[in-house]
Amino acid sequence: MSTTISAFSAFALEPFPTIARGDDLAAVITGVLSALATDLQDGDVIVVASKVVSIAEKQFVDLAGVTPSPAALALSARTGKPAEIVELILCESSEHFVAGERGPIIARHRLGYQLTSAGIDRAGADGAWLLPKDPDASARALRDAITASSGVTVAVVIADSDGRADRRGATVISIGAAGIAPLRVTEHAEPGQQTKRQEETLTDLVAAAAGLILGQRGRGAPVAVLRGIAYEASDDGVASMLHQAP
Asked: Pick from 56, 114, 117, 153: most CB atoms within 10 A?
């Protein structure tokens, strides 16, 4: 398949119901598609916010059961983050640094990702959501269930909102993928010059494109469909392109 892309379309699945712990996320997605009278097409890429995957997979931590270590207390005092959240960041990561004078905390998650706060999301005042245990496996399970239900060959990308160490604000990156090669190679040659070969993180580009419509304030749209994206089919997953393997 050619990976040249000249145009694509994207739409959010909304209204989307609130996901509760233990819900069958694939069934909810196909149910919303049915309610919208929207059919998937072969090659569609379904981008799913990591938080709803974590909720469905019951990755909840009650902060009342978290005892901050001295290191967490010190880092909490420096950054202003609750000590229990900082303790979870330290437990979920292998290394970290503070990007600014008071944060954010950039952590190397034990799965190999470098993420703000180790990808931990607050769940109200008393809880937190951890990342899915294996985002690539989560993406494969969603892809398999949606493909079985719809009869259409699709790819799934799990996306996470993430801050960067060198700038304010957040972007969107991929942390899991199925059915789509995470890297693509582009080549370009000017007349009389050698061909330039560049690897690009395609699933990050897909996640960022979906991020333009995913979960904007007040919308609550955790799933988007991108159509017209050219890609190679692969189950290598996002983990395959990390510098530090899980």
From this structure: 117
SS3 49: strand
pLDDT band with cut points at 50, 70 and 90 for residue 2? very low
**What CATH number did the domain enclosing 14 receive?**
3.30.1330.100
Residue 1 inside a domain? The answer is: no
Q: How many CA atoms lie within 13 A of 227 on its CB side?
A: 11
Residues 55 and 148 occupy one common structural domain: yes
The residue behind tokens 């009389």 is 192
Domain count, the chain: 2
- pTM of the full structure: 0.93
pLDDT tens readout for residues 169-209? 889 999 999 999 999 988 777 777 777 888 999 999 999 99
Measure the N-to-C terminal CA separation of the chain; round to a whole number of Å: 30
> What is the band of 219 on the pLDDT scale with cuts at 50, 70, 90?
confident
15 cis-preceded (ω within 30 degrees of 0): yes
Residue 153 has pLDDT above 70, yes or no: yes
Strand partners, 162: 171
At 10, the amino acid letter reads A
Distance, CA of 26 to CA of 76 (rounded, Å): 37
Structural domain including 88 reads 61-129
- Closest to 94 measured CA to CA, from 82, 110, 83, 81: 110
Do residue 213 and residue 122 come from a single domain? no
Q: Which helix (H) or strand (E) holds 146?
A: helix 135-150
Asked whether 121 and 54 are in contact (CB, 8 A), the reply is yes
Give the residue from 99, 129, 159 where a domain finishes: 129
